[in-house]
Amino acid sequence: MSEMVKQLRNIAFVAHGGAGKTSLAEVILYNAGVIKRLGRVEDGNTVMDFEPEELKRTMSLSTGFHQYNWKKQIVNIIDTPGDQNFFSDTRNCMQAANAVVVVIDAVDGLKVQTEMAWDFAGELDLPCVIFINKLDRERSDFFRTLKDAVDTFEPKPIILQLPIGAESEFKGVVDLVGMKAYTYNTEGKAKKIDIPSDMQELVESEREALVENIAEADDELLERYLEGETLSNDDIEAALRKGILSRAFAPVLCGSAIKNIGIDLVSDFIVNCMPSPLDRGSIIGTDPSGENEIECHPDPEAPFSAFVFKTVTDPYAGRLSIFRIVSGSLGSDGTFYNSNKELKERFNQLLMVTGKEQKPINEAGPGAIVAVAKLKNTTTGDTLCSESNKVKFKCVEPLPTLISFSLESKTKGDEDKVFISLSKLLEEDTALKLTRNSETKEILLSGRGQVHIEATTEKLKRKFNVEVLLNIPKVPYKETIKKKVRVQGKHKKQSGGHGQYGDCWIQMEPLERSKGFEFVNAIVGGAIPKTYIPAVEKGILEACQKGVLAGFPFVDFRVTLDDGSYHAVDSSEMAFKIAGSLAFKKAAEEAKPVLLEPVMKVSIITPDEFMGDIMGDLNSRRGRVLGMDTKGKNQVINAHVPMAEFLTYAPDLNSMTGGRGTFSMELSHYDEVPAQISQKIIEEINKNKE
Questions:
Q1: How many other C-beta atoms are found inside a 10 Å radius of the C-beta of residue 255?
Q2: Mean pLDDT, range 618-626, rounded to an integer
Q3: Which of 43, 45, 173, 224 is the most exposed place for a label (fewest CB within 10 A)?
Q4: Does the pLDDT at position 438 exceed 80?
Q5: Which pairs from 140-144 meet CB under 8 Å and 24+ separation?
């Protein structure tokens, strides 16, 4: 089995949406004889995209997996989504890879998502290779795309191949390592040719630059090169592999997935130059306490360990847990230990995921990407191991949510069904969040963007037959005061027999933002007996849940109880509680009450050319720009923006930047709503109450 580990390659295809990852996966599988007919993303018949929501939108919404054999090596393709709505899944699934192919569209060039994927690869220390795709398209430009990559990416991209012809005349590639040229027919079959005479000069200068770049990754080779020795192709290939593994550089390949030009060379490159689990070496985990490190080697004889990086839920087949084996081996059935949940799990069948199908297999060893069904307690991010050698691996955190919608069940009384069904989808998609807002009493579904939420509700209907309506969430406003007042709260009721009597004087004054509520007992001389003082506080606390302007919670104020009176017979805790609430309402009305709104801290990443539009848009949303930074080729704008103006920002930013902008946000603080806007909000809320 250790020979199998050596022959294995786990390769993630990452890119911005539409760059051609799924088409590349499709044509590689076709060339390897795994599929008999080439599908097209546009026609909705590729093996990697099969969910109805993907076919409807002609894009990957979830990572696809497939395996093929090429030159006696086994390759697992991990085809990740490129749309920012589903990018959390990309990041999760990249953890299972040993290396990454970054696909760049030669027409549109680099986009924000390409850079994010590159950054993820850096975080996970994954070797990268760049594939410049779509060179057959009008307006495609190899050298412009390459320059963008060189200006943006670290480690530096180095050219391994040059295109022969451009746009509709693109017909082949020159391999600078072997110094060979190939053209391709309409079937994608390669024919070796002489290097075109008009390319000789360019090929020679690029070959020299390549040898220099590669030699830099190997000190001994660099010495030989500087002494004028001619390096053999074997020398160059060995140093190339070493440099890729150490992330000294990122080789650049080129071609056209749709036309099947240069794709056989990509397949050769994956098996010849990209690392196996053995090359990548051990993965570090910790013991269950998290205090001591444990090294897990990709050795079939070592104790078993694996991490779950994806979950797929199906109402009929149950939960499918997809995991990567780190060390040891698994048979077709048995038990393992979940060190996150601290319990044993049993499985009856070991599966390999191939597109939409799962095929039973008898065994699997280190590096293998496999799945088991119907584990009771295991979810994404959990570590599976042998009970006698417990270990825990740290998995990446989901990306933050960017947009929320409040959910309303289409069928009255289906609320619980909505919650249960959505909870199952949350196991599948860790980038979703389901919360109940205690202030607005809404069920909120939060995700990475509007398309993310809409695709989730479509899946909810298809898988669980539950339909929901999406509404813009209510803003959780609050109320506070601006001046200090002193008032009396008196409750007196006489009705045959025992009466009710409670009388208190309070001072109410504003506190700094986010200080909440303070209660000060300043009663002297027993004006109110000690036993009744907590009742006054309780009355105020209950009353401040609904403010005087529009019924929002009242915050950031201090109440000092400084005087009052009581009746020996008629006073009670209830009477003083009512007196406290009366005092609060009276004071709140007199102390210049104002509306507070949540303000978000926002960070927007955008290409330079959209800066003007975004700044203008932020001003129209009452935003306040805090500063700007540069990140690669993009600009980063940091700002404070009221939540009310930002609820639907994700689709707006998309249309402003043609999908090239991205943002993150978190609650910063509460601030006073401007008077004229406050008036409108209060009128609207009170009108809705009626």
A1: 30
A2: 94
A3: 43
A4: no
A5: 140/106, 140/107, 140/166, 140/167, 140/170, 141/106, 141/107, 141/166, 142/106, 142/166, 142/254, 144/109
